[in-house]
Amino acid sequence: MQRLLTLLLQKFHSEWQEDIQKERGTLPRFKTMTWDMVSQEGELMEPLAVINLKLQSNAHTQTKETNVKFQLAKNTLNTMMQSMYCIRDQLSNTGETRHEPLHQQTDMV
């Protein structure tokens, strides 16, 4: 019985691996970024940075590009930059043994 189970597992292992890969979603990859400064309505309003990201995904062997556009004021840009520095530092330290999770949530308003 044990031998039969071992043979079945060996026989179907690669097929099951392929099924898992098909079902697993893929995250889009960063391709390009452009930005521009715009003024808000009114004299006392601070300028905004308008960010345009181009993302590329290879879902099911078809390449698809998506544009994401958003605006940031100075305070939200500072929060985003702090988070990006944390990500950079964590990526730099991925070779070291870590016991804490490699993600953080930053609240942006």
TrEMBL record:
A Pfam family it matches: COMM_domain
Domain COMM span(s) in chain numbering: 27-86
InterPro entries named among the record's database cross-references: COMM (IPR017920), COMMD9 (IPR037360)
Superkingdom of source: Eukaryota
PANTHER family, sorted: COMM DOMAIN-CONTAINING PROTEIN 9
Protein known as: COMM domain-containing protein
Organism this protein belongs to: Heracleum sosnowskyi
